[in-house]
Write a structure and sequence with these properties.
Shape of chain A: globular
Largest interface: A-B, 25 and 25 residues
Helix content of chain A: 25-40%
Number of domains of chain A: 1
Structural class of chain A: alpha+beta
CATH superfamily of chain A: Hotdog Thioesterase
Pfam families (chains A, B, C, D): 4HBT_2
Distance between the termini of chain A: 7 Å
CATH architecture of chain A: Roll
Number of helices of chain A: 3
Largest sheet of chain A: 5 strands, antiparallel
Order of helices and strands of chain A: EHHEEEEEEEH
Oligomer: homotetramer
Family (chains A, B, C, D): Belongs to the 4-hydroxybenzoyl-CoA thioesterase family.
Organism (chains A, B, C, D): Litchfieldella qijiaojingensis
Protein name (chains A, B, C, D): 4-hydroxybenzoyl-CoA thioesterase
CATH class of chain A: Alpha Beta
Keywords (chains A, B, C, D): Hydrolase
Radius of gyration of chain A: 15 Å
CATH topology of chain A: Thiol Ester Dehydrase, Chain A
């Protein structure tokens, strides 16, 4: 079952054409990944970054922007894990507004020890939760 | 011959791990595309957006982040067109710091009439310049 | 009675010290003003910018940052109009986390015809609502 | 003598009215302060944040936006220290495009030990350089 959350297209997201400037979509996507970790994986970014000195940097992205989003649009983001590696995670993310798909994204991130900068294996509890969510 | 330009990693680009937050890379990439249009295609974004009501929205992106970039790094961006369609343009973009590749990106954008939101053919002068730059 | 809304401090807001980078506070403040117009003044930014070609650009700001905000903090924003001019509006905005004030801001914006760039008088309905909210 | 540097108004800075969205001005201002520290004070943000665990968070701001800036404008930023306290620094910053002043800002920042979060006195070498620049 996908993780679902909503974001409103705000003034700060829009370019001179009054549509979302694509780097702002990635701020939204990052916030969706942030909420997924907090709510589903049950380890939030504060716990990761500040307390444990670990992080989940993105290592690759494939994104298609199917149709523009406009100021005031309500976007529904839909996130589902598609692969869990020993140190990595691949997510499939879609955003739509009503019946129209706006973007689809495949994103791979890696679990990293921020002190060494090296990938480390997912802790069992996190891995368990990720595997449960696999589509 | 690729179009080359440099960007410094600033405080505003960095996350709590003191490395570039990836949505900020796309702001840099967009500014590199902006300079490529102004300097090589010889039609700048002001002329496009404000005077002619046309634009070049990004429709797809594939990006790999090979290694993190840190506060103060000087990045060299290297951009080369790899395909020119009737209304589209595919660019290959790399960034490196000294000998290390930091990101590689393939980006497709479309020439669009901003009033109708529809793709339109590249004007001859723009198309000519783009074709000349093809790798 | 102040208008109250909440914002979570996200990864995208934080700098290498893991505290809010102050330009991101202004993105939050703008989004609070945006919600105030949508919910209290009952004219949202889409209606203003896209349909009516009017806007409310900020012309002056005084801000004090009393204490830093950290990744994961829940901020409560509190907004109250303190003066309504014929074409202007002054807002007092505070943000706090639990019992600690994080920022206080006095912001003046102007109602502007975006085609001419000139200030124009508040329409009666908007003015009425603003005056009702005056502290 | 003021410290002078230039910034181009880019697509990423502009809002649906094709003028600079004011939080983006503060990203520019922060980058101007960053260059002033690197070039005039001769301690860059990487040295401060990464090596010495010190920083210069902004504690107060007064800003007036005199006229809008548009996509493609070349802004000249002009920065001059107006007061150096034992742990603080007040800067006067102006931006103009040709003969038109776009913004004026008075900004106070504090030299802080990032580990304790407490203000600490300017090291002599930094203080010396700041005092020399006082208007």
């Amino acid at each position: 079952m996908p993780y679902i959350t909503r974001r409103k297209v705000r003034f700060q997201h829009c370019d001179p054409a009054a549509i979302v400037f694509y780097p702002r979509y990635f701020e939204m996507i990052n916030s969706v990944v942030e909420d997924f970790f907090a709510e589903v994986v049950e380890v939030d970014f504060r716990a990761m970054h500040v307390e444990r000195h670990v992080g989940v940097p993105t290592v690759s992205l494939e994104t298609r922007f199917h149709a523009p989003s406009r100021l005031g649009d309500e976007l529904e983001f839909n996130l589902v894990p598609t692969a869990v590696g020993s140190t990595s995670l691949t997510l499939s993310i879609h955003a739509r507004c009503e019946d129209e798909t706006r973007l689809s994204c495949r994103l791979t991130l890696v679990f990293v020890d921020m002190d060494s900068g090296r990938p480390i294996p997912w802790p069992d509890a996190m891995r368990q939760r990720l595997v449960t969510e696999l589509s």
